[in-house]
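Notebook p. 47: complex prediction with glycinamide ribonucleotide.
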Amino acid sequence: MVLSTGHSKIRTAVFISGTGSNLKSLIKFSKTIKSPISIEFIFSNNLKAKGLNYAKLYKIKKKVLNFKNKNLSENKLLYILNINNIEMICLAGFMKILSKNFIKKFKGKILNIHPSLLPKYKGLNTHKRALKNKEKYSGCTVHLVNSRLDSGRIVLQKKVKISKNETVASLAKKILVQEHKLYPKAILKLFNL
Ligand code: GAR
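Predicted complex, structure tokens below:
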């Protein structure tokens, strides 16, 4: 990635739509000495996202825009990110698809975590589809975001074995535990740390 780590940390925004367990793991990571990023902003399209509570808990700025009018919401968001000097974005359970125009403005500086071994199972219901196809393994992927859904350059993946009596819930839980480790590792890798 063509970002210079310099002396100060990369000002990063995390986008969420729900629980925010990956957000929590990223916040914890960002507070370690080795972290190249600092989390300065939390964005959600969902006012009821549980993860928004971390904004208060960790004293991080937050903003909610409902994305009903995507163009308008994205333009407002770009303005807010700009005035907060945000340099990088981590999508963490963010369930809206960003427009080409938005992605272009942060080209090569948006990361996403996806609960499958990409390029397998892009999009939604990954665990259900992996189980239906009787996969032996699934996992999670951290990748750079480009204009095609779940298709940008893969930074890091973690394989997870699917057990005999695996359910969507048990697999999701197992993979989530690995996601919390993978996202920070992928960020370190991206910055050659
Ligand atoms: C995570 O499993 C993440 O990989 C997935 O949503 C969950 C969010 O959990 N993301 C996607 O499916 C993106 N298409 P969290 O809110 O507890 O971090």
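Notes: The chain has two domains: 8-107, 114-193. The chain has a mean pLDDT of 96.
Next step: compare against the earlier run before touching the bench.
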